Amino acid sequence: MNIIKTKRFVLRLHPAGLALLGIVAATGHGRAALAALLALLIHEGFHLLAVWGLKAPLRQLELTPFGGVMDVESFQSLPRGRQVCIAAAGTLGSLLTGVLCRELPGEGGLLPEVGRMSLALGLFNALPALPMDGGQALAALGHGLAWDRALRKALMLSGVTLGLALVLLAFYGAWHGHLNLTLLMVGPYLAYAARQAYMTQRMRLVEESLNLRAKLGKGHAWKVEGVALPLGISRAELLRCVLSRHPRRLYYFFWVEPETGKIREVWEEKRMMEEVFK
Predict the structure, then answer these.
(1) Computed from CA positions of residues 122, 127, 128, 131, in that sequence, does the dihedral angle turn out positive or negative?
(2) Any residues with CB less than 8 A from the CB of 25 and at least 6 apart, and which?
(3) pLDDT tens digit sequence for 216-258
(4) Which residues make Cβ contacts (< 8 Å) with residue 66, sequence separation at least 6?
(5) Do 167 and 194 touch, CB atoms closer than 8 A?
(6) N or C: less crowded end of the chain, CB within 10 Å?
(7) For residue 39, how far is the Cα from the chain centroid?
(8) Taking Cα atoms as reference points, which of 196, 197, 199, 167 lies closest to residue 183?
(9) Cα gap 30→51, rounded to integer Å
């Protein structure tokens, strides 16, 4: 659901996040729902401060049950240190907020509740798994290294595993008479979001690899490779082929007749991307 939409920026609230807040409020925990929302906004506020402070253009921010998903334009092209700062800013801000609110006087008020929610949100987002901040920061640290792809895949699998573990924990609690709707909602969404974050990062690497001017501007030669594709290949196979490319190489795609072995067409990377993602 779009909350704010302009030509350059979109603020969205994911239906799972809205439903979770509604469930918490409907069960008589309205103050807890408000505290969770405030903690989430504080968390994303620190991310936004980092993005604006580092002058990185933001395309979209989507609020989810356990944090926000940002789409920063040309994020993969930013220096590694800036990527880590943007990824870690929310977690550090939540932990700082949690500590400060715990020191404030008064028990049972809203601010201590916001502090507890912020602390929980910060600790959860520090986990080394996608799509959490800890996973994003580790992926940024590994960006451009030889084990980059393996690291991102491991972080994605960690997120999926964590999501499934939360679902199993919810079923275990339900078996013993303690139904936890939060776990049942967050678990599947976390597994889904881990996969989506991984695919988004892969797509950003594809976009980066298409920028030939930026490649040549780095001042060194790039290895050129050719890929032979049979005519009639499915779109799913094309997508797998595109995502398996190395982002530090230039590619040409040769369309070949399977019967004769003759080359019918030659596509550059940009043409292939336009065809696959149109």
Answers:
(1) negative
(2) 33
(3) 665 556 677 888 888 888 877 887 787 777 666 778 888 888 8
(4) 121, 124, 125, 132, 186, 190
(5) no
(6) C
(7) 19
(8) 167
(9) 32
